[in-house]
Amino acid sequence: MYAFNYQRPDSVAAAGSALGGSDDGKFLAGGMTLLPTMKQRLASPSDLIDLSGIGDLVGIDDNGDGVVIRAMTTHAAVASSSLVQAKIPALAALAEGIGDPAVRNRGTIGGSVANNDPAADYPAACLGLGATIVTNQREISADDFFTGLFETALGEDELITAIRFPSATKAAYQKFDNPASRYAIVGVFVAQTAGGARVAVTGASQDGVFRAGEMEQALSGNWSSDAVANIAVPADGLNADIHASAAYRAHLVTTMAKRAVAAAG
Amino acid sequence: MSETGIGARVKRVEDQRFLTGQGNYTDDINRPNQTYAHILRSPHAHARIRSLDTAEAAASAGVVAVFTGKDIADSGVGGLPCGWQIHSKDGSPMAEPAHPMLVADKVRHVGDQVAMVIAETRDQARDAAEKIVVDYEALPSVTATDVAIKDGAPLVHDEVALNTCYDWELGDKAATEAGFANAAHVVKVDVVNNRIIPNAMEPRVALGDYDGSTGDYTLFTTSQNPHVIRLLMGAFVLQIPEHKLRVMAPDVGGGFGSKIFHYAEEALVTWAARKLGRPVKWTSDRSEAFMTDAHGRDHRTHAELAIDGDGKFLALRVSTLANMGAYLSTFATSIPTYLSATLLAGVYTTPAIYSEVRAVFTNTVPVDAVRGAGRPETTYMLERLVDQAAKQTGIDRAELRRRNFIQPEQMPYQTPVALQYDVGDYPAVFEAGLAAADYSGFAGRKAETESRGKLRGLGISTYIEACGIAPSAVAGALGARAGLYESAQVRVHPTGSVTLFTGSHSHGQGHETTFAQVVSEMLGVPFESVDVSHGDTAKVQFGMGTYGSRSLAVGGSAIYKACEKIIDKATKIAAHILEASEADIEFKDGNFTVAGTDKSMAFGEVALAAYVPHNFPHETLEPGLDENAFYDPLNFSFPSGCHICEVEVDPETGVVDVAKFTAVDDIGRVVNPMIVEGQVHGGVVHGIGQALLEGCKYDENGQLLTGSYMDYTMPRADDMPFITVEQKSVMGASNPLEVKGVGEVGAIGSPPAVINAVVDALGPLGVSDVAMPATPMTVWQAIQEAQAH
To answer: Which of B38, B119, B413, B626 would bridge with B62, disulfide CB 3.0–4.6 Å?
Structure first.
């Protein structure tokens, strides 16, 4: 790790100013990706602006239609929230399956979504449920937010403050773990929402999380595993590594989608 | 049996300090005025060093010194030695290229050490290392043995043709060919024993110190055998005589073989401490551990078995390519030869066996012993071959094994591949294994699994291993450059408590508990009165260390001998004080009694008398009660066993779940059943890890793809089943404790049981082989390929 300046503002506004005032600063949420990267000397921000001192960024609220999860809420808090469990049980279950207990107690939803790791779980939930990403400047629909591998619609000094998840009639997430890292080789989030069926796939694509349109259409008319059983996503453009070839990933997308629909009931 | 003697389930006394953060590991040790070393490592698999500029690094903040390969070469110190010389078929000695502490000419694997920066802090050393400018001329590289032996393949060492270290053979070729000429069936397998990375919990650390006033060197290091390191580094690398070199390996957090070997960093920090007059510490980080700790396995084997019309094995011929990596690690050359091919008979009566092994240099991390070391490779090949033979001959796999077992009445049994098995009852162990695994109930479990849409398979493995390494005369005749005895010193203090000094090193095995049990049992002293001291060449007289499941069989036998000497001496003292003849003194339950009388002395009273010898006849009776023994084993010990695995396979995803695992092992006498169970659990987890999860992979440019836990799959608790562990002990092993060794059995017996189970499960889909590690993708692809045919 290289030396850096450490700042711990107590408000979103102060965090924004701190970032603006730094050479090459970075917001620090849970640090589950950023800190290991810095330890490997693969990242060297001039300043770390630690968001853990901003009380306003922690908590889960009921907004009638669904839940609003503030950005610095940990995965463990989401997993164990009786509100989330009641309103969107699939989301609580997804949070329970992220990483390991240490990661779940340090990692935050805002950090995960802002990082948009192509194998992370939360982006699938955001896209699958049609969530809204709330920042210190605006609101962005999940459909517009995830723009590519580790790329999002966030501006340079923009900070996620909360994520608004609408409830779904039915929803489930099925993840096929990378046996080593336990990230998703493929994760599929399916939801029957007010706006129709949604299917979001993480882990698979070279472009990051995406919606499987053909599956959504099939499920809109017939919410059943059989509806997606014969829909294959093309292997072209899917990730390939020592754990899963593109062809295997393509197969897993269909398999996980089928299982997610079955799990959603 | 007492509550703390041999056979008692005593809780490990060392665990309290390990579990409460009180352990004293090498990195916990700091010396006044200490400096920190960082090793600059090669990013290339193979490259010539055109030039190397250290000027900016040397001027960097906090830097004390920068050393390069040229400095090492100029100082006249040696390279790292190899401890076992192998001769090729034609009688020529193996190729033994230089293994320098820092390379000067070219790098040969990613992670090869190029320069050492020493600074006031670890970060300063690392910062400075980034300022070293190395001009590399990248060269084509080779990582796979079957490619490396081809004409025109890149040469890892320019002077070693076809990258071949040796081309060795064992066994009677003509008799083997004759067996094949008479065969009714010939069964063939091609197996790859996947390369694994040892991953001890504690990364390696070395701290060198030099006292200019006395000329004494001290090395603190994470080693399984500090005396061996003292010998290798002192005599062969740095030319420091033993009496001026103290090596300490304090608490060590796991080794699994990887901490047997003498590594460059140990010699570097010791050499630099003298040069600088300051202590130098190097601590490996996890990434360095992946690319510098010696890897294990990496054998490619073709094997053929000749079988007669009744299913009896007639002959076995085996051809293996063994990866040595870029340099010869300390015991690398012995693994595919004397620790592997000598076990090719397994537990079977195969009368003729011929094996050839070609050891090959590649642009990879050196390969050496990892838990099992050679025996897992042989067992895996053999048990895959036997299962394949059952399939091909149509004889039930259990029945085929029964027809070929060596019978207990054939003991001692001379195999056609050099070893003589002393005792064992393979049929009894096998039947005990089948019973413990409820073999006959498998059909019911399979039906239940299938009702859930999954496949279920059962795999059997029957294995033998040679432990208790080793009779020095045998090892020497086979090329070992060391003897393989062990030593113990039992020091009885005046009030009867005991300190045991042992040359066996404990790095997870629980010696502080089991060895104390042995002493407590033999001397009749309370378990709590025995301390076990190890890991310091200044305290312990000598030691060959811990590997090859030898600590109890060889180290324990030395303790046994030393305790016998204590009892002899104490008997003399008791006889003198009780005014009886020595022959009339009986020693039982810690008391010396004149036979047939009530005249008696407790062990503690004798100990006190030994140190308060007011009326000793000093011409015939020395004061003191402190005895030393060396034990050189008469034979190897031969644990054997039957491991049975049941797996459930999800045919849709290829995920393999180990549903049931049973290990029934003959390890001879059990000193501590709880520790034995723990060792079997650990070994089986290691073996299941190799079979299903762990696989080291390089890309086409020689870059290590599995260089972190993001990609290298270490087994986790939720990957593992509950493991049924039983012992079917056969007594009579060729050592006084009649123990056989348990540290490696799990890692040896389990991989073929797992893969045989996976293949059994997939049989209905037309799959006949699955490579290790049988990851979900590997299994899914095997299913796809079988179904495409």
So the answer is: B119
Residue B239, CA atoms < 13 Å, CB-side half-sphere: 4
DSSP helix/strand/coil, B87: strand
Is residue A230 within 8 angstroms of chain B, CB to CB? no
Residue B181 phi/psi, 5-degree rounding, is: -65, -25
Contact A243 B709 (CB under 8 A): no
CB contact under 8 A, B713 and A245: no
Q: How far is residue B469's CA from residue B453's CA, in Å, rounded to a whole number? A: 47
Q: Minimal Cα–Cα distance from A135 to chain B, Å? A: 31
Residue B1 has pLDDT above 70, yes or no: no
Q: Which residue in A has a C-alpha nearest to residue B705's C-alpha?
A: A242
pLDDT digits (tens, 9 = 90+) for B125-179: 999 999 999 999 999 999 999 999 999 999 999 999 999 999 999 999 999 999 9
Residue B710 touches chain A, beta carbons under 8 Å: yes
Question: Is A244 touching B (CB cutoff 8 A)?
Answer: yes
With an 8 Å Cβ cutoff, are A179 and B710 in contact?
Answer: no
ipTM: 0.96
Around Cβ B182, how many Cβ atoms within 10 Å? 11
Domains and CATH numbers, chain A: 5-53 (3.30.43.10), 55-166 (3.30.465.10), 170-264 (3.30.390.50)
CA distance B709 to chain A (A): 6
User: Cβ–Cβ of A242/B697 closer than 8 Å?
Assistant: yes
**Domain B31-139+201-254+259-292 belongs in CATH node 3.90.1170.50:** yes
How far is the C-alpha of B584 from the C-alpha of B592, rounded, in Å? 10
DSSP β-ladder status, A210-211 and B47-53: unpaired
B420-421 vs B413-414, strand pairing mode: antiparallel
Q: Cα(B546)–Cα(B503) distance, rounded to whole angstroms?
A: 8
Structure tokens belonging to residue B219: 């090395």
